[in-house]
Write a structure and sequence with these properties.
The protein is built from eight helices and no strands. It has helices spanning 5-19, 28-47, 54-73, 81-100, 109-126, 135-158, 164-190, 196-214.
């Protein structure tokens, strides 16, 4: 299927934001423009969806808006790290509230167990390198991220029929968000990763696109 204009524009903006890194074009101004613009386009992708789920729609759009605030804060990775962390923590809480409007919170304990083991293992490895002043907010963030990712699995596994494909896309979004944040934390607290901006932002925006796609309207069947 051909790529839709909004998806193409999002891909282009994401590519320009990633290319602003020092290992590529080394142009900070590209990041300042195209990083927030990419998330704005993902919000536009979600905006038309969820008409039959107004409460879900409000919470997921709130999560995307808080993510946009976090994106802007993290343009300045030192001064903006804590405000960005708080913004994304609130975004995950908004996502959790939205997802639980569809299915009971953490109704699949196996999903929570798997994500908790992954997140706990990464956090344990990085914990000695996390500054003392950031340990409490980082731990709170990891809890919120773990619960959000596990809840995407709850929704995905409970999806049936017309919602099945969208549910699987949402599950992928949760896994990609966990991957992106694990890469970001490793790069920040443990060791610099080669082409870190590419891997962190690519998985992050794919995760947000998957979450936004879950809100897209379901195509109506033929009239009877």
């Amino acid at each position: 299927m051909p790529i839709k204009p909004l998806a193409l524009a999002t891909l282009l903006c994401a590519g320009l934001a990633i290319a602003s890194a020092p290992w590529a074009l080394d142009a900070a101004w590209l990041n300042m423009i195209f990083k927030p613009l990419t998330t704005v386009l993902i919000i536009a992708h979600a905006w038309a969806g969820g008409g039959q789920r107004p409460a879900v729609r409000r919470w997921l759009l709130a999560g995307l808006a808080l993510s946009l605030i976090g994106d802007v804060a993290l343009i300045w990775p030192q001064r903006g790290f804590l405000p960005g962390l708080v913004a994304f923590l609130l975004a995950h809480i908004a996502y959790i509230v939205g997802f639980t409007r569809e299915h009971r919170f953490l109704a699949k304990p196996v999903a929570l167990t798997i994500y908790a083991l992954v997140a706990g293992s990464v956090l344990a490895l990085l914990w000695p390198s996390v500054p003392a002043g950031l340990r409490v907010p980082v731990a709170c963030y990891v809890l919120a991220l773990t619960a959000m990712s596990a809840q995407t699995a709850v929704v995905g596994l409970a999806s049936r029929h017309d919602d099945l494909r969208r549910g699987r896309v949402l599950m992928l979004g949760g896994a990609l968000f966990m991957t992106s944040d694990a890469l970001l934390a490793t790069n920040k607290f443990a060791m610099p990763l080669p082409a870190a901006t590419l891997w962190i932002l690519a998985t992050y925006w794919m995760a947000q696109w998957c979450i936004a796609s879950w809100l897209r309207p379901v195509r109506a069947g033929p009239a009877r």
